[in-house]
């Protein structure tokens, strides 16, 4: 009973914070309308044709896997007789975020970059309950089987990292090596989100995303200007030719077609009182048992430093190897098997 009361109180607090941030967002929309006019604020460019980079055959072959309740889209590069490297994107991204890795590792692996449920060409079931982490984990398990493999090197970034952390804990026998980019272990993150006011402030967007409709609207404003800020902004973006105008168009084209409700539902479902999925035996796993490489860039604006820690494991700082502008281009994983 105490646990239920705690979750109810947590939900109320989250909605109050989200509503406050939503009010600030509405004020910003009004101010922008006064400054530049409503026509510019609500403008959207028509994109009827994908940019050429999305049709680049050197990135691999497009395919679909029919899972239990969705059809999942992926791009595959490399021979099918090679070990599987599975790449799981973050928010707000899709398979294209792994364009450099699809080329880099294809000689040693069959590299597969997925579109998670709700994204791009993968199915988008209605309702936030269809985006609980247990379903995302199940999708990855079913995909590995559908591709004809019994294990893989699993790589995840951001929300993809959340899924991969949980997958490796739930199904360790299916993961040879786990590689996480810029995503704290979910246990560590949950602890600090509850106990650290500084982290709660940095995670303001999580509370905002609990609101209906308004988060999706904010992404569409001024022709998806938020995507420009996220991918090439001052604080967290890529400031080099590794994120070109055409690359930005690829993201704008994709989300103008597929929308943001599915991706934002990941956050909405995450505050639904969900518990970690059980392992194959039905019991709770005690932690990550597979060999794991956790990569962080030097400049992160969303997490406090403590979230980079992985208690009980070795930590080594390799300066200047992987800067913020580099993580999308190539992960320094030359020590991988094969």
Automatic annotation (TrEMBL):
<protein>
    <recommendedName>
        <fullName>AB hydrolase-1 domain-containing protein</fullName>
    </recommendedName>
</protein>
<keyword id="KW-0812">Transmembrane</keyword>
<dbReference type="InterPro" id="IPR000073">
    <property type="entry name" value="AB_hydrolase_1"/>
</dbReference>
<keyword id="KW-1133">Transmembrane helix</keyword>
<dbReference type="InterPro" id="IPR029058">
    <property type="entry name" value="AB_hydrolase_fold"/>
</dbReference>
<dbReference type="InterPro" id="IPR000639">
    <property type="entry name" value="Epox_hydrolase-like"/>
</dbReference>
<keyword id="KW-0472">Membrane</keyword>
<keyword id="KW-0378">Hydrolase</keyword>
<comment type="similarity">
    <text>Belongs to the AB hydrolase superfamily. Epoxide hydrolase family.</text>
</comment>
<dbReference type="Pfam" id="PF00561">
    <property type="entry name" value="Abhydrolase_1"/>
</dbReference>
<dbReference type="GO" id="GO:0004301">
    <property type="term" value="F:epoxide hydrolase activity"/>
</dbReference>
<feature type="domain" description="AB hydrolase-1">
    <location>
        <begin position="83"/>
        <end position="192"/>
    </location>
</feature>
<feature type="transmembrane region" description="Helical">
    <location>
        <begin position="12"/>
        <end position="31"/>
    </location>
</feature>
